[in-house]
Amino acid sequence: VQPIEPSLVSTLKARHDMYHSVVSTSALVYVQHPSAQPFNSSVTITLPCPPNPEKKRQGDETEHARAISATVKRVATAYHPWAVSASVRKNGENLSDTLKLLGHRSKEEGWKVFDDVLIQNARNGLVSFELNEHLESFVVIRFLFVLENTYLLLFAQALEEAVCSTMTNVILYRKRENPYKIVVLLSASKELTCKLQNLHEEGYFGPPEPTQQFPLREGEQIHFRFRGNIFASENGKDFGKVYRLIFHSQRKPRLELQIKEVDEFGNHSSPHYKGTAVFYKVTREMITKKWEQPLPYGEYQHQSPLCKLALTLPKHEKLINRPRSTKRISSDSSEALWDNLLYWLAEELAEDNTSLLALCLPVRRSVLQLVRLKCPDNLTHQIYELLCCWKKTLPRSADKLQLLSRYLQKSGRSDLSEELHFKWQNKVFT
């Protein structure tokens, strides 16, 4: 006996308007018969099938008003005899519902509507009917207004599929104090908020955010591996393996992994190392007899990934200890002053969202592309890099201050041109 949660019926109704008439269902019953012989006599089946809540509320109101309605009838008889024929429960007539039995004799035949089976309402939300033949599975559906058998069959199929699977999300969070430590787990969608709160209490946070929800059946597996410049390990030694999570609604599938960069010199144009966790769904039919072993990657490489999650790792600045003879010594003490001046100018221009092309500097287009690639998200750094590239192209004898002042005036920033001369003369760059 597979219970059907009301939330599941509500979800199916929300997805498909044609199921709007459905009020509730009984449990989904699966039967194993000891023999294929026909029944000698009919079997009475009694199942819970929640009544229409609106009708129940109307019934409660009717019970509460019964004494009042009796008085109204007596008064109406005395003054308006024609009023006796009116029903005091007129409003409740629109709330009458219908019960239908659906089932199938075998999976090969599929679902069928048994219109000839009479289903009776019993007390406390129970329904009963007589069964004269073997059915492998059946369910009772309660609905308000007329619903075609075609839609009833589609609803039964969707209900069976939904019952056999659970909407699930993949969560991949990292430790706030240690971004190289991550946790990967499966969570039923209805428990997602609670799971995220528990992870926050353990010190795990995103990004990335959880994946979109997808259906999983009991025993199905999620296999995942890492691509790009990030890979993972369970023990800190064996990196680059395929990892597996087995879905069970009563268990909490979870993996704690360590991640690191594949190439420390990779992603040179980004302040982070970048990688992707790619997840694949492995159905029970695909699982080999040696179920404890992950499938070879080639077994599901041909299918599209179930979902992907992007990862980043921060880069650490490397301290290079050079021999004393190789340390770089600036031959021009004014270089440091120029760096400060150019960075101040970049900050001033970035505040007004000045584009690189608007600076009118005589640099090649390839230099502009390189600067944008090197600093994709920081306009101040882009302008600073562009100014540095421009300065490097000038001969040592060039009057850099005069040239830069001229380009600023040409760009419509005469105010910065004057301030530039003032700061250079006074050596103040804040």
UniProtKB/TrEMBL annotation:
Biological process terms in GO annotation: signal transduction
Region spans: Disordered: 42-64
Basic and acidic residues bias (residue ranges): 53-64
Domain Death: 357-420
InterPro entries listed in its UniProt record: DEATH-like_dom_sf, Death_dom
Protein name: DTHD1 protein
